[in-house]
TrEMBL record:
The keyword Signal applies. Coiled coil: none annotated. The lineage of its organism: Bacteria, Bacillati, Actinomycetota, Actinomycetes, Frankiales. The keyword Signal applies. Transmembrane segments: none annotated. Pfam families: PhoX. InterPro entries: PhoX, TAT_signal. It comes from Parafrankia irregularis. This is Secreted phosphatase, PhoX family. Keywords: Signal.
Length: 394
């Protein structure tokens, strides 16, 4: 009997909506970003204006923006019986079958980790919630794929990448060909048909995975970024001999590999893969077309009181802005504009022992989701997931 492939089972309507959403991001990298990449972003005035006083949810926002809490760790999601997971981390949004959207979120809890999904109708009402991955280990960040799946990454020694299905109804699948290391985030490049991967080690590497067949992550080649001229400039790629990494860590298998201090978030748009390194508070840009590396933001170059520290998860908007969440710092999400301005977009007050995780825009770009991983009590069981609505630039 004929058996459909995993890829063929993905709903075609979802693929269509993803292609439309992807087309909307085509303006992300343009002449302004080309100029911005020539120098580190500097503090300036946000296009949204200054932050006001914290609202009833403890979120300080610019004028015209509002927040709501959509989930709390250990509590049933509104309108459902599903208990939201602890330690919410990386996340992404997807168009939902039947209209609306889905927000997925990892759990960085050890041993029981996994990932969950919140499903919204077109009006923003939660219609269902549930698990899309169970009993993995310390799932930190990840990334969406163009075919509508979520790559959930384990941040442990010999960590795995799981491909999960936000719409539900399909079991998650481990993708060992993508390497076994302390994974952080992933970003897909549909032009070159590769997936970029970051590694959260003090001497971690920046990788790309070349699937044998685009859309099928079961096999392929893992490569590591190489450099001979220092932190920026021309770079290359070399194959990782043993992606399983059991006898020798993947980051140590290629002598020419470039090393980065604590790889974190990862975001691709228009030939550029942006990624963050928390150890030195930098946002990097790998230009895939030119095969060169530059620094978008460096806290050490942003004055005596840099607005963005503890750089972590990163996402982008259809208008071309980057949004970087802080792990620590003063618990902000900062915007980095294409003309090189960095400024706070929001701040969560009273969460000093936590970190901001999982920033992601809806397909329409008018709502932003994120979490405070440990809430106000600095406990992994006290995470809070927020939604922000407002006049985002699209």
């Amino acid at each position: 009997m004929h058996r459909e492939t995993e890829k063929a089972r993905i709903n075609r309507r979802t693929l269509f909506r993803l292609s439309v959403a992807g087309a909307g991001t085509a303006v992300f990298a343009g002449a302004a970003w080309d100029a911005a990449l020539a120098a580190s972003a500097q503090p300036g005035t946000s296009p949204y204006g200054p932050l006001g006083a914290a609202d009833v949810n403890g979120v300080a926002l610019p004028s015209g923006f509002t927040s709501r809490i959509v989930a709390r760790s250990g509590q049933a999601v509104s309108g459902t019986s599903y208990l939201w997971h602890g330690a919410p981390d990386g996340g992404a949004c997807f168009p939902r079958d039947g209209g609306g959207w889905v927000y997925v979120s990892n759990s960085e809890l050890p041993v029981i980790g996994g990932a969950s999904a919140l499903r919204f109708d077109a009006n923003g009402t939660i219609v269902s919630a549930g698990s899309i991955l169970s009993f993995s280990n310390a799932n930190c960040a990840g990334g969406p794929t163009p075919w509508g799946t979520w790559l959930s990454c384990e941040e442990i020694w010999l960590g795995r990448v799981f491909e999960t299905f936000p719409q539900g109804g399909t079991s998650a699948v481990s993708r060992p060909a993508m390497g076994r290391f302390k994974h952080e985030a992933a970003a897909c490049d549909p032009v070159r048909k590769v997936v970029y991967l970051t590694e959260d080690e003090t001497d971690g590497c920046f990788y790309r995975f070349r699937p044998t067949t685009w859309g099928d992550l079961s096999s392929g080649t893992l490569e590591v970024l190489t450099a001979t001229t220092g932190a920026t400039g021309p770079v290359g790629w070399a194959r990782v001999p043993t992606p399983a990494g059991l006898l020798q860590a993947t980051r140590n298998q290629v002598s020419a590999a470039a090393h980065f201090n604590g790889g974190e978030g990862c975001w691709y748009a228009n030939d550029i893969c942006y990624f963050t390194t928390k150890g030195d508070n930098r946002v990097w840009a790998y230009n895939a077309s030119a095969q060169s590396l530059s620094i978008v933001y460096d806290a050490a170059q942003a004055g005596a009181n840099p607005p963005l520290t503890g750089v972590d998860n990163i996402t982008g908007s259809r208008a071309g802005d980057l949004f970087v969440a802080e792990d620590g710092g003063n618990m902000e999400i900062n915007i980095i504009t294409p003309d090189g301005i960095v400024a706070p977009l929001l701040r969560v007050d009273g969460h000093s022992g936590s970190e901001i995780t999982g920033p992601a825009f809806t397909p329409a770009g008018d709502r932003l989701y994120f979490s405070s991983q440990r809430g106000t009590t600095n406990s992994s069981t006290a995470g809070i997931t927020f939604e922000v609505t407002g006049p985002f630039r699209v």
